[in-house]
Request: fold
Amino acid sequence: MKNMLRVLLAVSMALAFVGCKKEEAKPVADAAAALVAPGKDDDAGWKKYLQAVAIQNMGTITNSPFLYYLPPESDPEFAAKYERQVESATTAISRGISPGNMIAFGSSASAKMADMIGVVFKDVQADSMKGVRIVFIGDAADNARVQTTIQPTGAEYIFVEAK
Reply:
């Protein structure tokens, strides 16, 4: 039994090593070029897109990012999911986000995500989020509103147009 576990461990380590080598071979430019926003109703595509954009904007952030996503507005449970995300994000933000962390917000429902950000950050004290990076992935029309909301917090703000 011990030998079988050792063999399985060795095989998994070898596969991980091979997998890492394949990923290293991909040029960084390909990853950036591949980031194209999916269709408005592509829920699974948007989840993957949010993760990819967040990873691309990590910079010097080493902690796992906090990701907040809203489904397409065509989702029959959109209102309930919106309320749950508002509650979740408000709770997390009210506890405080330590410097060196990143929060990413993205959705095909860009205007509703911008609304959510406004609600979540309305009671955040000025300059209480220095060293935190906030990424908003949405429509250019919503950028100024979100930036105005985030700016007083002292967080670094990054806008990524979903196109």
